[in-house]
Amino acid sequence: MNISQYIINDIKPLSISDKISDMQLLFNQLTYTHIPVINTENIYIGCLSETDVYCFEREKFISDYTYAAEGFFVRDDENWLDVLEKFAQNSTNIMPVLDANNRYLGYYELNDIITLFHQTPFFAEDGGTLVVEKGIDDFSFSEISQIVESNNGKLLGAFISKMENELAQLTLKIGNSSLNDIIQTFRRYDYSIISGHEDDSYIESLKERSDYLNKYLNM
């Protein structure tokens, strides 16, 4: 999925030659958690957070505080899942996009990337959701696929949703089949069944949980 079409340039990055008061004013007008900073040659320096900027002296220059810049970014050819991961890792709702020479191209907004997440077949396609558990060293995705497909099911998506005490929980989205036969087969392969849902209620719940990232949009 090419997400470069979602690169935004509505807000221009500030330069290290701008004053802190300029950045404070910009934060007053926006809901972003961070603002990108570039040097005079459009090379990305990093992002300053709203929390930090309000602690800085208004009349000083941004160049005086580049030590506080957070260096997160993504490349313009990065896939959407890696971009979403960068958002989560850095607790931000804005993600600078750079080219191969570290030139600033624009930014992604978190809510746009989450919308793409919700449009994937895992969420969008009809089917049942199954959560299974097995030892971290004992499961394989090839085995999981074989179990689903041997019961005429179609695996629409799978991810590790929890790892704890040497056990891994895996959330599966399954189409084209009743879950009952699949559940029984998983049990024969020594998987524990955590939950199984034939309707979309669990998917809606999962969507809501993924929206925890959106809390940063309204900071």
Describe the protein in words.
It contains eight helices and ten strands. It has 219 residues and is an alpha+beta fold. It has a four-stranded antiparallel β-sheet with strand order 8-9-7-10, with helices on both faces. The chain has a three-stranded mixed β-sheet with strand order 1-2-3. Helix 3 packs across helix 4. The longest helix is centred in the middle third of the chain and has 11 residues. It is elongated. The chain starts with 13 loop residues before the first strand and ends in a 9-residue tail after the last helix. The model has no long low-confidence stretch (mean pLDDT 87).
List keywords for this structure.
alpha+beta, three-stranded mixed β-sheet, 10 strands, single chain, four-stranded antiparallel β-sheet, about 220 residues, elongated
